Amino acid sequence: MGKKKKTAGDGSSTIALNRRARHDYHIEDRLEAGLALEGWEVKSLRAGRAQISEAYVLLRNGEAYLFGAHFTPLPTASTHINPDPSRTRKLLLHRSEINRLIGAVERRGFTLVPLALYWKRGRAKVEIGLAKGKKAYDKRADKKEKDWQRERARIMKNR
User: Which of 22, 29, 40, 113 is in Cβ range 3.0-4.6 Å of 130 for a Cys bridge?
Assistant: First the structure.
């Protein structure tokens, strides 16, 4: 027989979301990158123990790195290694993608922020957003628009 297809009830493949990024930045473009992980990190991701709300992406020596992501080690982690929950992790991207990101960050003043951490075909992936920072008045306008959409939905529901 063939493989059983995933249904909606099987659970989500999303490990962690960075909701703060959508509030603080205008997301211009999105990319998917792989993560170079150690064994204990994969186990902790499978248990859903990851946090990327304080994380950011930096480009150094022509490579991309994830800083500030916190993967809490499981208590059953191996005794012969010393897990570092917030170590720097290398992102796996194609050379052309890295070159495009370097151009956007250095020339046009963009920032790279991780938006989501998820599984894809058994591999951990991170969604990176090419973003510009929002000003305070942009955040207020977004909140006002969101409130109006919620109120409009409430009004239309009662009709």
Answer: 29
Predicted local distance difference test score (pLDDT) of residue 92: 92
Alpha-carbon distance of 90 to 88, in angstroms, equals 7
Confidence class for position 94, pLDDT limits 50, 70, 90: very high
**Which region holds residue 11: left if phi is over 0, alpha if psi is between -120 and 50, else beta?**
left
Distance CA 58, CA 56 (A): 7
CA-CA distance, 102 to 94, in Å (whole number)?
12
Whether the predicted pLDDT of 65 surpasses 90: yes
83 class by beta-carbon count within 10 Å (0-12 exposed, 13-18 middle, 19+ buried): middle
User: Greater confidence, 74 or 6?
Assistant: 74
pTM: 0.74
pLDDT of residue 157 exceeding 60, the answer is yes
- At 13, give phi and psi (nearest 5°): -90, 0
